[in-house]
Amino acid sequence: MNATEIHTFDELLVALKTYMTKNEIEIVTEAYYYAEKKHENQYRKTGEDYIIHPLNVAYILTSIFADCESITASILHDTLEDTDATKEEIIEKFGITVAKLVDGVTKINSISVSTENDYLIEYYKKIIVGISEDVRVIIIKLADRLHNMRTLYALPLEKQKANAKETLEILAPIAHRLGIYKIKSELEDLSLRYLKPDAYFDIVERLNTTKLERERVVEEMMDEVSKLLDANNIKHEIKGRAKSIYSIYKKLDKGRNFNDIYDILAIRILVEKEQECYWALGLIHSKYKPIPKRFKDFIAMPKTNLYQTLHTTVFGLDGYLFEIQIRTYDMNEIAENGIASHWAYKENKNAAVMMQNITEQKLQFFKSIIELNEEKLSSEEFVTSVKDEVLNNNIYVFTPKGDVIELSKGSTPIDFAYKVHSEVGDHMTGAIVNNNIVPLSYELNDSDIIKIITNKTSNGPSREWINIAKTTQAKSKIKAFFNRTNKEEYITKGKISLEKELRKNKLSITDFNSNENIKKVLDKMKLSDFEDLYFNIGNGKYSPITVINSLKNDTLSNTTKIEVIKPQYTSADNDIIVDNIGNIQTRIANCCSPVPGDDVIGYITKNSGISIHRKNCHHLSEEGERVVSVSWNDTIKNKYYSEIVIYVKDNNNVVLDAVQLATNNNISIDSVNTINKEDGIIYLLRVLTKNKEDLEKYMLALEKIKNISQVERILK
Ligand code: MN
């Protein structure tokens, strides 16, 4: 479309007649004369009568078949702000809905803040409010901006740049979000023209000089493909497709060569039925060699802005690369007009309602950001979240059922879970990505298939997740969980489970609570007080045994403290042979957790058979009448527990590696606990092994992992 092209009221009427009723056209006409009168003697910077602007905004909206209310409101959109028209008057003449639309557009335009960030926040908020009230407000706003961009030449240079920047950063991405490709693409090209005129005109120039050759090849290719489809009775339309200047600019900006880009010529095939898309694709692939990995099926897996099409790139005529898109007419409508395509369906009486419903999902995005902003985000954080999460850099991942979930780049399984549903996030205990167990901090990639493991009885998210999660939505949902949940409840729960664990380990609660101990625990866990400790146990961030171990670990060398810990036992069934004694109950002592292969001795307990310790266990002296000599059986039936500490540098997450190595080394992992320290992380692994050899192999393998500085087996 010509940027300086001005459309007249008669032209608007012609456009309206193609899809509106007589009654509706009368309403629009009335609005036009009303606005013309109100804007009388007002002029635009271009020198034209002011009414030319709203009139052309309306004309733009007819290209996406906007409904009568939207067209009417678009003609009136500047009357509230710039003339003596009042809302009451508009309600009276055109009804409450139109008045609300006009009011919504006016509100977005009136921002009076000084700093750039405050401005952006204000702007986003207004847009969000606009969308949540009626998405048509934003569609009118986009058309308004498009016309202003087409006439931007009339403004001073500085204003041109500022408007172009705002358009490129905020409005074009919103048009993309709503799927209105037509408007998005023109907004981008116009922004580039003012922001980077050199780059823009350079591309235009180069496109011009290559135009003839490109057109020749495209024509011939279209002809060939068309014949191929005709021969197979597939009714179709085929079009050459111009790449937008902005999309070429972005590719050049990424370091691509202009020749590489224009070598890829683009055509689009429209067919009637979805099935025919696949037939056409099959025919094309059988004639032209496709480039591997360039085929994308957005029909089976639509993008979240509703876009559906098959994409492929093939070696076409004369060795040129061709990008081919195949879609049905319906899909084409959505691809061009997105959310606004609902207007195009005549039978759809409630287009506005439909559009609002579809926007709901996207709204969630906006809403969570607003909530977070209300919490405590700095202005910069707020603006970054909006840009990162709502407007840019998205990846598309899948649920095990194949549903597409859109996330911002860098998202983790936590973000995925919360995006699916708060309930899923709140009860998640783990994640499987492409059939591998991954840590919750795992960075998701495009096309990953993600399964979230949940447990209905889990305590809810851990506070730590707030730092791991990438999206504001997940963060705010986790925060919401904690606000919702009574803190007291967690504190009580944590206290009870810690005391239970102390009793289980035969540790004195009073001893544990001694000032000296508590200080150590709090320091290690980086917690401020008792309550904090209980709370974090209660919410599942720390298991009680981790808390106890953190103390034990610290005092490993301190033999007097160690005495506090009484041995605990696990049954060893028939894996232990006790010398000179027949069938007798044996149990593995938890203090030193011997595994087959360790030198062991037995200790006759008062009433629970013989406990099996490692020979060098601190808890036993090798002498004494209750000590008996024991040995492992030749064949071992069970797996035995052992505990390993892993010291990791620089807070690197190595759990995934550790888990994978375990599987390779015949080791089962029972639990992993984490202790964060300033200079790294300590993982406490509780593992099950058949024998010492496997265990040692595993530990050696762990030591070879980059970032692991030390691996130790725990001997209490
Ligand atoms: Mn305007």
Can you tell me about this structure?
This protein is of the alpha+beta class and 716 residues long. It has 30 helices and 20 strands. The strands form 5 sheets. The protein has a 6-stranded mixed beta sheet with strand order 11-13-15-14-16-12, with no helix packed on it. Mean pLDDT is 81; it is low at 554-569. The chain binds manganese (II) ion. The site of manganese (II) ion has 4 residues, from loops. Manganese (II) ion is lined by residues 53, 77-78, 144.
Count of runs of 4 or more consecutive helical residues: 30
Bound molecules: manganese (II) ion
Strands of the biggest beta sheet: in what spatial order? 11-13-15-14-16-12
Radius of gyration (CA) equals 34 Å
Q: What is the averaged pLDDT score? A: 81
Strand count, sense and closure of the main sheet? 6 strands, mixed
Residue ranges: pLDDT <50 for 5 or more in a row?
554-569
Number of strands: 20
List the helices and strands and how they pair.
Blueprint: H1 9-17, H2 22-38, H3 52-62, H4 68-76, H5 79-82, H6 87-94, H7 96-109, H8 116-133, H9 135-150, H10 157-177, H11 181-195, H12 197-231, E1 236-240, H13 245-253, H14 258-263, E2 264-271, H15 274-287, E3 296-297, E4 310-315, E5 321-328, H16 329-337, H17 351-375, H18 379-391, E6 394-398, E7 404-408, H19 413-420, H20 422-426, E8 428-433, E9 436-438, E10 450-454, H21 465-468, H22 472-484, H23 487-504, H24 509-512, H25 515-525, H26 530-538, H27 544-554, H28 559-562, E11 569-571, E12 576-578, E13 586-589, E14 600-604, E15 610-614, E16 627-632, E17 640-649, H29 655-664, E18 668-677, E19 680-689, H30 692-703, E20 708-713
Parallel strand pairs: 2-5, 13-15
Antiparallel strand pairs: 1-2, 3-4, 4-5, 6-7, 8-9, 8-10, 11-13, 12-16, 14-15, 14-16, 17-19, 17-20, 18-19
Helix pairs in contact: 1-2, 1-3, 2-4, 3-4, 3-9, 4-7, 4-9, 6-7, 7-8, 7-9, 8-9, 8-17, 8-18, 9-10, 9-11, 10-11, 11-12, 12-13, 17-18, 17-22, 19-22, 23-26, 23-27, 25-27
The structure holds manganese (II) ion (MN).
